Every structure is written in structure tokens, then in C-alpha cells.
Amino acid sequence: MFLDKTSKNGADSARRCARSRRGSRAVVRLSFARKNCVSVLAACGVCGFMYWETIRGTFSRNRFHATFVRHVVPKLIPWPLPDSIVVLDIARIHMYRELEETIHQCVQYRFFATLNPIEIVFVQLKRWLTRYANLAFPLYPEKVLEVAMRECLKAKGTGVNLFRRCGSGASGVEETVFPGRRKGWV
């Protein structure tokens, strides 16, 4: 199970009113304010998003831990079944003793990846928001995200295909991804 968080503010790429000197470009700066953004904590498996929570503002460590224990831990299953390994990125919000103990109580493995595949899914989510919901997002961010989380993984190159390169398929770990695990090899 891949777990991460992302945030999006209401700023879009539409140009606001700006003036500049003749022969120079007009520069429009949109500030990123924490209070105006919406954060999403998502747990993604081979078949798509298993759970997500949307809040206004950013996730604190306490809010992250409470959400993880309440909604993600019940979906974890023991090794060697799918969704038995928790993959996080190496952010500081993920590195504390209570989270490690919680994960080890229900599954055996926790893995920190420098490139978490859920980041690719988040790029697709933000691309979907920019393409289809750029004007509605600042007005109704939670409702737009609820639709976007379901729609962004419907493309052909996502879902199971996205996680195949990580060694995960619909039936668990794929032996063809790891050729070194053949008979007689270590």
C-alpha cells in the first residue's frame, strides 16, 4: 500500500490583470497561503485509491497519525498478501516512533522510497484538476477532489499498470519483475 499526502491551492494558471513597461513581460505573482490550500492524505493500492481524507490547510503530525490509525490500519493485511507492505516517502512527517510501532503491530514491513509511485498518481490528479476542474476547484475543493480521486485513475496507463514496474500486480508480487529470484538464485 502506497501512502502519501499532497496539497493544492486555489491558484490557477489563468493570468490576472497585469501591466508592464513596453518591451518587457508582465509578471504576476500568486502567493501560496497555507490557509487557502486543501490537503489530501491518500492510500493507494494496486487497484486504485483505497482511502483518502481531504482537509483545509495542511496535515500536522497528529492529524496524519490519527487518520492513519483510524482509516488506513484497518485496511492493512498480514504478509505475504497484497497491501501488507506500507510504502512511504522520506518526509519528516513520516519518521517518528509511534507510526513505526503502529505499522509493525499490523504488518511486518515499512519501506521508505525516494520515489513513491503514488507521486505519479498525484501528478495525474493535479493534471486532471487543471484540465477539467480549474474553475470549480477554488469554490468547492472537497467536492471536486472527491470526483477527481475517482476519475484520475481511469486512464489506460494507471492503476495496475502503474504499479507493475514496482513488482506488484493484481495477484500480489510478480515474479517476472525480479528475475534474480529464479530457482537456485539467491
UniProtKB/TrEMBL annotation:
Domain Tc1-like transposase DDE: 2-131
InterPro entries, per the entry: RNaseH_sf, Tc1-like_DDE_dom
The protein, known as: Tc1-like transposase DDE domain-containing protein
Domain of life of the source: Eukaryota
Protein source organism: Globisporangium ultimum (strain ATCC 200006 / CBS 805.95 / DAOM BR144)
GO MF entries: nucleic acid binding
Ranges annotated as spanning the membrane: none
